[in-house]
Amino acid sequence: MSPPSLARLPHVVIIGGGFGGLAAARELGRAAVRVTLVDRRNHHLFQPLLYQVATAGLSGPDIAAPIRRVLRRQRNTTVLLAEVASIDPEGKRVVLRDGELTYDHLIVAAGAGNFYFGHDEWAAHAPGLKSIEDALEIRRRVLCAFEAAEREEDPERRRARLTFVVVGGGPTGVELAGALAEIGKHTLARDFRNFDPSDARVVLIEGAPRLLGGMAAELSEAARKGLVDRGVEVRLESRVETIDEHGVVVGGERIVADTVLWAAGVAASPLAGSLGVPLERGRVLVEPDLSIPGHPEVYVIGDMAALKQDGAWLPGVAQVAIQGGRVAARNVLRRLSGATTEPFRYRDKGSMATIGRSAAVAEIGGLKSKGFFAWVVWWLVHIVALIGFRNRVMVMLEWFWAYISWQRSARVIVDRPPALTAGSDDGA
């Protein structure tokens, strides 16, 4: 289709190139519409494996794919690298930092960021895990902690260097804690001379009575036991009171730690507030067809959308975003053809989490599994879900090498370690 003919077609703008936005764009790939996908990053990120980048198991490009490459065959689709400042539903405008777009239909899939429950000052001391940049920063902190311990002579300071606190017992927190435990006990076991890396202490803090609250109780217990067997201290029904440069305070107890990681909460994109519609804990209350009240041409999907199904709020997981993106795209086409839009009905395909090498928990279609078999299922599902042949091959090779060697290949510190900078406590 030539550019002049495209210009006459209805214009659909999609904000966000994550799971939901990409699913919507693909659904519209053969439709008689002009699609513009806007994202402030040029890549689609496979977030379920982001923790492996943070723990040196994979490199960032292994789990990312350029959005232009993914959509290159869709001649009706334009990809713009830009940051959205606000949305004007009345004027049907998307305001960019350096311009604006007008639309006939809008699909907002801007995702979510980290939420610190009113304590934004904690962010500097406890980074979350939402982007490649976040993962690289966490990896730098983790690897630098071991490097600093090698040079530390004071036993108390060395203990603080080697203490890692993970806040949040959902899938991300569980997987981070398990991976951190394996780094000390296996990956770095022979790499240092002045201390034993297996002395590293990993503490997982969860406010609820059990881990992985969205899964069956027996699988939550299996995950807890698996982590404990790997040396992780699991603290349930524990509330974080303070996070600072010295560690965390939990239930009045100070845990001295140089490295604190946040996996406890997410907040919808600030763009939700610019839509001028009711919010539920920062998420947009959408109609059953995923449109917003008063503006049937605007759809909100994924982490930004608040919608109840069977009396419970839909979770902010990838499958909700993917299915929502497809339904929103189909509803755009239904409105253009004069048909009635379809309500969104989420079909839960299950959930899973890996605890560490050869161990995972999985709940798929009512079937519950744990241990090695669940780990194999987890492995296969994630390989298949990755976008791009290269990504699948690279991840398989990295995992195969890690399995036979206990090593993690992405251990390069790309920024100068804080302990080695001029003017630091340690001199140099």
Write the layout of secondary structure elements.
Layout lengths: L2 H5 L3 E5 L3 H9 L6 E6 L3 E3 L4 H5 L9 E3 H4 L6 E5 L2 E5 L4 E4 L2 E4 L2 E4 L3 E3 L17 H20 L3 H7 L1 E5 L3 H17 L13 E5 L11 H13 L2 E4 L4 E5 L2 E4 L2 E4 L2 E4 L3 E3 L10 E2 L2 E3 L5 E2 L2 E6 L4 E2 L1 E2 L2 E2 L4 H20 L13 E6 L2 E6 L2 E5 H14 L3 H17 L23
Parallel strand pairs: 1-2, 1-9, 2-5, 9-22, 11-12, 11-17, 12-13, 20-23
Antiparallel strand pairs: 3-4, 6-7, 7-8, 10-18, 14-15, 15-16, 19-20, 21-22, 24-25, 26-27, 27-28
Description:
With 428 residues, the protein is of the alpha/beta class. It folds into 2 domains: 3-40 and 82-114 and 266-337, 3-Layer(bba) Sandwich (FAD/NAD(P)-binding domain); 120-264 and 350-417, FAD/NAD(P)-binding domain. The chain is built from 11 helices and 28 strands. The chain has helices spanning 3-7, 19-27, 50-54, 67-70, 132-151, 155-161, 171-187, 217-229, 318-337, 372-385, 389-405, and strands spanning 11-15, 34-39, 43-45, 64-66, 77-81, 84-88, 93-96, 99-102, 105-108, 112-114, 163-167, 201-205, 232-235, 240-244, 247-250, 253-256, 259-262, 266-268, 279-280, 283-285, 291-292, 295-300, 305-306, 308-309, 312-313, 351-356, 359-364, 367-371. The strands form 9 sheets. Strands 5-2-1-9-22-21 form a 6-stranded mixed β-sheet, covered by helices on one side. It has a 4-stranded parallel β-sheet with strand order 13-12-11-17. A 3-stranded antiparallel β-sheet has the order 6-7-8, with no helix packed on it. Strand 15 (247-250) and strand 16 (253-256) form a beta hairpin. Helix 2 (19-27) packs parallel to helix 9 (318-337). The longest helix is centred in the N-terminal third of the chain and has 20 residues, at 132-151. The protein is globular, with a radius of gyration of 23 Å. The N and C termini lie far apart (62 Å). Residues 419-428 have low confidence and may be disordered.
